[in-house]
Backbone:
């Protein structure tokens, strides 16, 4: 049976995005109070993937879960190809990222919330700590030093996002909320992944809850998909931006920060060769597995 779009589908998608943002805000927990006198009107909101951290956090999580036998080598090979595309293309393809994250969330079905939280701490040390961009980390610290809240806002599971925030000494995290019953994951999401308009909804909910003035707030992202969040605040900043976001940021005279300097020249010069090599390698992995 063919599936045709109906007039209700955009409305349903919008409502699911709204639910994702509301769920993320409800699930967020404030970390220890900042030692600096708090600035009660301003906060900073940071995307994670390629903004705070090099690459996709869900891929780094997947690597750690693979070591712990959550899934097969074939699964990780597929995730590796999606991660390669993300890093070399320098732009989020919604379809690729959605598939990677949806697969990653499905792997936790049947596991407990406590188990993932404990494993997340170990995985941060193994795969993520050395991937943090020092320049973006310094930006976050700049806000903390001024007594402002600093939140991560990401499509990654809120549990791993909260671990990253806690280990970096940030206020908290807004992320995709996975359904769990009696502390056990069902493999379903509450609403939709926290993406696009969902991020903006989550930020607005935090601002309303904490009495923040959005015109005095800051937002940081690498992706044009986060324009709803960036456009919401008075001080948007493009960090390691994709092509579309860089062009938009320039047209709006937004700040741009790029911490990829050395890597950018390598990617520019070797893009075609790397793409060819990676494609061949991916095929070899899959063919070997199919024999």
Residues:
């Amino acid at each position: 049976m063919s599936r045709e779009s109906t007039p209700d589908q955009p409305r349903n998608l919008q409502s699911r995005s709204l639910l994702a943002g509301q769920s993320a805000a409800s699930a967020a927990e404030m970390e220890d109070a900042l030692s600096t006198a708090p600035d009660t009107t301003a906060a900073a909101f940071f995307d994670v993937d390629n903004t705070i951290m090099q690459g996709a956090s869900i891929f780094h999580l997947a690597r750690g879960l693979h070591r712990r036998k959550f899934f097969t080598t074939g699964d990780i090979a597929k995730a590796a190809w999606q991660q390669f595309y993300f890093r070399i293309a320098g732009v989020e393809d919604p379809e690729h990222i959605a598939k990677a994250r949806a697969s990653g969330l499905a792997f936790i079905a049947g596991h407990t919330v406590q188990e993932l939280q404990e494993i997340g701490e170990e995985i941060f040390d193994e795969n993520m700590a050395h991937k943090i961009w020092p320049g973006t980390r310094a930006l976050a610290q700049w806000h903390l030093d001024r007594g402002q809240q600093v939140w991560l806002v990401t499509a990654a599971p809120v549990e791993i996002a909260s671990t990253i925030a806690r280990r970096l000494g940030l206020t908290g995290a807004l992320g995709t909320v996975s359904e769990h019953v009696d502390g056990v994951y069902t493999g379903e999401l509450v609403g939709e992944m926290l993406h696009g308009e969902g991020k903006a909804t989550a930020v607005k909910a935090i601002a309303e809850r904490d009495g923040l003035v959005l015109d005095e707030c800051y937002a940081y992202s690498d992706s044009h998909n986060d324009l709803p969040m960036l456009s919401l605040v008075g001080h948007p900043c493009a960090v390691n931006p994709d092509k579309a976001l860089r062009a938009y940021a320039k047209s709006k005279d937004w700040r741009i920060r790029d911490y990829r300097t050395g890597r950018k020249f390598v990617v520019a010069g070797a893009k075609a060769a790397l793409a060819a090599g990676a494609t061949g390698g991916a095929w070899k992995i899959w063919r070997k597995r199919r024999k």
